[in-house]
Write a structure and sequence with these properties.
Helix content: 40-55%
EC number: 1.1.99.14
Number of helices: 22
Oligomer: single chain
Strand order of the largest sheet: 3-5-4-6-7
Number of strands: 11
Catalytic activity: glycolate + A = glyoxylate + AH2; (R)-lactate + A = pyruvate + AH2
Radius of gyration: 21 Å
Keywords: 4Fe-4S, Electron transport, Iron, Iron-sulfur, Metal-binding, Repeat, Transport
Pfam families: CCG, Fer4_8
Function: Component of a complex that catalyzes the oxidation of glycolate to glyoxylate.
């Protein structure tokens, strides 16, 4: 493990303890505890590297209190790559202490693609046994208080689709005169939870005369696994996806989920070890594009239909800081006739979802979410658009909890409506 500490030292020595991270860390702003800041975590890892502290389960719990929103890394004046550092630390801690049984089973399940797919399809059929419709009808709540993941606090979750996206659409979606050929990496959420958004993405691409291939054998991007420290599963999924996508002759790889896109475009570089697969990924990563990024690059259509609505936009962390996509969704929304676009305060601030973070630390994530919702509601918008399914799920829960009528949709669904494709 010494070599790992040497790797950490390259980042640890850069930290000048300025505390800039305190001003941007959502978790610190809730917990008001120094060990939740990037600076505090850096100090703890420094103690580990110096032999003053061991990889304890208590340290593992502290390292889990991070949304991996990349705000500290983006704002660090010394250029400390805190996001990469903390992922590396989680890996070391998982190797030393293991992960909870539920996570181990879930992550292992991700590696059995057909079994995972079958399990979710069966789950969609029987979800009514455990869950019922939320009072406002925008999701489901547990019939009885369940422990963990906020389900005992009437957390609103989206239902599993009775027919996943990849079962709705053919693998090859042809157009009469194709100007480009792309692969659509759907990931899990667009496939199993929000297939309507996935269909909107395919319709938009076809409207731009783009042939869309939806690889049937694509796997989960692995983000839940490797961000929890399970690099074995994360690496397996990353390498399977890279080999699959690299085998096709595509002009671009389109994503509609911020976390999937950031993983494919950047984070796989720190996970993949096989030299041949790493080389494939280096070329593949140049082709990864968010749907809004791709559409803007092709040229926004001029004959857009009117969409009369006041809309605001939430920047997902993995889209704005992970993929560098921010202006494109705004350009598209503002180009639609009838749209009254209202920019919310701190639009790029984390909503508190953080993938599995909101399951493990629901109270903290809800407080962070409330700040986001306050800013969204201050705009007077009736629709909040975003490009991340996890953000959509978390923000919808918060709106439902406070009885707000604001609707959360994927940006692509609004674009498809403006294109006359709904």
């Amino acid at each position: 493990m010494e070599h790992k500490y040497e790797e950490w030292q390259q980042q640890l020595v850069k930290c000048i303890r300025c505390g800039t991270c305190r001003s941007v860390c959502p978790v610190f702003q809730v917990a008001d505890n120094e060990n939740t800041t990037a600076r505090g975590k850096v100090k703890l890892l420094e103690a580990v590297s110096e032999g003053k502290l061991t990889l304890t389960t208590e340290l593992q719990a502290r390292m889990s209190k991070c949304l991996l929103c990349k705000a500290c890394a983006a704002g660090c004046p010394s250029g400390v790559k805190t996001d990469e550092l903390f992922l590396s630390a989680r890996r070391a801690l998982a190797v030393e202490n293991g992960l909870p049984l539920a996570k181990r089973l879930a992550f292992t399940g991700l590696t059995y693609r057909k079994l995972f797919d079958l399990g979710l399809k069966i789950g969609s059929l029987f979800q009514g046994i455990v869950f019922k419709d939320a009072p406002d009808g925008r999701g489901k709540v547990a019939r009885i208080p369940l422990p963990g993941a906020g389900l005992g606090q009437r957390r609103i979750i989206p239902p599993l689709a009775t027919k996943p996206l990849r079962s709705r659409l053919p693998e090859i979606n042809k157009v009469a005169s194709p100007k480009a050929r792309v692969a659509f990496y759907t990931g899990c959420m667009l496939n199993y939870v929000y297939p309507d958004a996935g269909e909107a993405i395919v319709k938009i691409l076809k409207a731009h005369d783009v042939e869309v291939i939806i690889p049937a054998k694509q796997s989960c991007c692995g983000t839940p696994a490797f961000t929890s420290g399970d690099y074995q599963v994360g690496r397996y999924l990353a390498e399977e996806n890279v080999k699959l996508l690299a085998a096709g002759k595509y002009d671009s790889i389109i994503t509609g989920c911020a976390s999937c896109g950031a993983a494919l475009k950047h984070e796989y570089g720190a996970i993949i070890e096989d030299p041949e697969v790493k080389q494939l990924w280096e070329e593949l990563s140049k082709k990864i594009k968010d749907i809004t990024e791709f559409v803007v690059s092709r040229g926004i259509k001029q004959d857009l239909r009117e969409v009369r609505a006041k809309i605001t936009y939430h920047d997902p962390c993995h889209l704005v800081r992970g993929m560098g996509v921010s202006k494109e969704p705004r350009q598209l929304l503002q180009a639609i006739p009838g749209v009254n676009y209202a920019e919310m305060k701190d639009a790029a601030k984390c909503c508190g979802a953080g993938g599995t973070f909101s399951m493990a630390h629901y109270d903290i994530s809800r407080t962070i979410n409330d700040w986001k919702l306050d800013n969204a509601e201050e705009t007077g918008a009736t629709i909040l658009a975003t490009g991340c399914s996890a953000c959509r799920m978390h923000i919808t829960d918060g709106l439902g909890q406070r009885g707000s009528h604001m609707k959360v949709v994927h940006t692509a669904e609004i674009i498809a409506k403006a294109y006359g494709l709904d």
